[in-house]
Design goal:
CATH superfamily: Vaccinia Virus protein VP39
Mean pLDDT: 86
Oligomer: single chain
Number of helices: 2
Number of strands: 4
Distance between the termini: 22 Å
Amino acid sequence: MKALNERVTVADMANTPLQSGSVSMVVFCLSLMGTNITQFIQEAHRVLAAEGVLWISEVSSRFNRDMKTFSDGVESIGFKCTSCNTDMTHFATLTLKRLNQRPLLVNRERVK
């Protein structure tokens, strides 16, 4: 991948160059398409400051009508769901607050 200009940073969502606790909000909008979604969420937990906000908006069909299982999985990584909107016909949105618990391990390694 190549950056379009000097204001764009090319990065893997599972391993960003951001410092731990350096951002107040992470937005995933139509971007959780990889097979390593858990690692994306863990990376969001790492870079978010205490009580930072994670906002997710995805096509409803991605959740196979089981938003509870998805939100429970995100909460198990260290978030608390503060809002879940599934009333829209094509999209679902979640707003979550970062908790201070440690993220889950993936393949026995903690995501940095």
